[in-house]
Amino acid sequence: MNKKICVIGAGPSGITAAKNLLDAGMSVTVYDQGSEVGGNWVYTESEGHSSVFETTHIISSKTLSEYEDFPMPADYPDYPSHKHLAAYFQAYAKHFNLYPHIQFHTKVLKCTRMSEGHWEVTISANDTEQTQLFDALVVCNGHHWNPRMPTYPGQFSGRFMHSHGVKRFSDFTNQRVLVIGGGNSACDVAVESSRVAASVDLSWRRGYWVAPKFIMGKPADVFSEKINWMPQWLWQRVSATSLRIRNGRNTLYGLPEPEGPIGFHHPTINEDLFYTIRHGKIKPRPDIARLEGNTVFFKDGSQGDYDTIVACTGYIISHPFFEKSFIDYSEGEVKLWLKMFHPDIDNLYFIGLFQPLGCIWPGSELQSKLMAKELSGQWKRPANILELCEQELRQPDFRQINTPRHTITVDYHKFRKRLLKQLGRKQ
Ligand SMILES: Cc1cc2nc3c(=O)[nH]c(=O)nc-3n(C[C@H](O)[C@H](O)[C@H](O)COP(=O)(O)OP(=O)(O)OC[C@H]3O[C@@H](n4cnc5c(N)ncnc54)[C@H](O)[C@@H]3O)c2cc1C
Ligand SMILES: NC(=O)c1ccc[n+]([C@@H]2O[C@H](COP(=O)([O-])OP(=O)(O)OC[C@H]3O[C@@H](n4cnc5c(N)ncnc54)[C@H](OP(=O)(O)O)[C@@H]3O)[C@@H](O)[C@H]2O)c1
């Protein structure tokens, strides 16, 4: 008992990891390079870890986005803002007395597993490097902070930025803006910048399903949960039909049709995209062929002139404190059982390294409870863990397009069920 555990990150995943480890009697040290609890939800004016912008509200609704141990305040709206969320995570940390265990302004530089199994963790704080030894390492450094930039033939002479750097939309006032991507960042950035920009074009390299935030007056994920008992094929058809009734076909808006059923890509949820396109404030464009000066040439032969390009092209999964030869999940398969257990190393845990069709931190909370059970000797991992890792890769919850953002997808409800089963609980 009283094992020494290192947690990297005090975001939504790191704080629930710390809380559950402390409940199990562990000695916990959390390192965070930032100055407050909340990770991605700690909005900063200048570019840092957080990828939220001034107007970000979550896309998973309040009901399905709370820790089971700490409900969201009753007066929060269905889709809280980044400010509400930062306050919620900070209230969680206060309530469970986590602050004394967190060292802020402390960056983890290197983690090495010693031959006898301990973790040697090198940190940097106040321009000084130090090394500490731990019995186990818990990685909660997030996976939405290292921008993936696209490259194109030619050169653009205007501003070419990533959505990670978007903070205030007043920066786009009177600009001709091109937004690249069909995910949530792209749709949010296109809609928000269209309020102030001279023009906004939106370039998609394929078609996507875009779901509204509300269906029949209910948050989309709450509505979807009600029909979650259906077999997947039926759930996909019912969901697709309800979207068709609500929005009609993408082609009505000048956008390409989705290439597969709902779930073939990470969900894009935006209430205003279609409305804004039909008000002439966003112009759809296909994929980019090449750049020249301020002109962008598209694959259908059309072209446009822009002051700013915002690449909303997602993030690279990064663990810069590990040797790349040891762990590198930046491309391809992520071989972890329940997205948390390494096949060979029994004192290394990843919490929050999954992309649900739904909210991340309730899953992080259950992962943390399972980790705490194992470390306190109340649960034993199966002996065939490598086989389970491979099975999880062979049988994903959704068959998705093979693009870099789709390597860690889980279905929110099925993933919870799998974790609850290991915890010996029913949903
Ligand atoms: C714009 C945007 C909106 C989103 N909306 C939703 C949503 O609606 N619902 C949802 O579920 N998810 C959403 N996400 C996903 C988001 O990743 C999660 O909400 C959540 O922040 C994940 O929590 P985390 O603790 O795993 O990671 P993070 O929140 O990224 O926290 C990681 C923490 O680790 C620290 N850290 C990282 N590296 C180091 C290091 N080397 N040393 C020390 N500290 C380190 C960071 O400072 C940070 O505090 C959104 C993401 C973005 C970008
Ligand atoms: N309001 C919110 O709550 C909110 C807002 C923003 C983001 N988020 C969350 O943050 C996470 C990241 O979202 P994101 O939208 O930033 O990234 P993302 O989900 O990874 O989407 C990236 C988009 O860019 C496209 N893309 C990637 N490389 C490209 C290239 N070279 N050329 C053209 N297109 C390219 C992708 O296409 P493919 O489909 O081909 O992969 C995809 O459409 C997600 O979990 C998301 O839900 C939430």
Question: What report would you give on this structure?
Answer:
Helix content is 24%, strand content 21%. With 427 residues, it is an alpha/beta fold. The chain has two domains: 4-145 and 315-422, 3-Layer(bba) Sandwich (FAD/NAD(P)-binding domain), CATH 3.50.50; 154-309, FAD/NAD(P)-binding domain (3-Layer(bba) Sandwich), CATH 3.50.50. The strands form seven sheets. Strands 3-2-1-7-21 form a five-stranded parallel sheet, covered by helices on one side. Strands 9-20-10-11-16 form a five-stranded parallel sheet, with helices on one face. The protein has a four-stranded mixed sheet with strand order 8-17-18-19, with no helix packed on it. Helix 1 (12-23) packs parallel to helix 7 (361-375) and helix 7 (361-375) packs parallel to helix 9 (412-422). The chain starts with a strand and ends in a 5-residue tail after the last helix.
Structure keywords:
single chain; 427 residues; alpha/beta; FAD/NAD(P)-binding domain; 2 domains; five-stranded parallel β-sheet; 9 helices; 21% strand; globular; binds flavin-adenine dinucleotide; binds NADP nicotinamide-adenine-dinucleotide phosphate
Helix and strand arrangement:
Elements: E1 4-8, H1 12-23, E2 27-31, H2 82-95, E3 102-103, E4 107-113, E5 119-125, E6 128-134, E7 136-139, E8 154-156, E9 159-162, E10 176-180, H3 184-193, E11 199-203, E12 210-211, E13 214-215, E14 218-219, H4 220-226, H5 232-247, E15 268-269, H6 273-278, E16 283-285, E17 288-293, E18 295-298, E19 303-305, E20 308-311, E21 348-350, E22 355-357, H7 361-375, H8 385-394, E23 409-411, H9 412-422
Parallel strand pairs: 1-2, 1-7, 2-3, 7-21, 8-17, 9-20, 10-11, 10-20, 11-16, 12-15, 22-23
Antiparallel strand pairs: 4-5, 5-6, 13-14, 17-18, 18-19
Helix pairs in contact: 1-7, 7-9
This protein binds flavin-adenine dinucleotide and NADP nicotinamide-adenine-dinucleotide phosphate (NAP).
The site of NADP nicotinamide-adenine-dinucleotide phosphate has 26 residues, from helix 3.
